[in-house]
Amino acid sequence: MKPLPVVDADKPVSRQVIADSPDLMVVAFRFHEVGAEGALHNHPHVQSTFVASGRFRFTIDGEEFEVSPGDSFVIPSQAKHGCVCLEPGMLIDNFTPRRDDFL
Question: Which residues are in the Cupin type-2 domain (predicted)?
Answer without folding.
Answer: 34-87
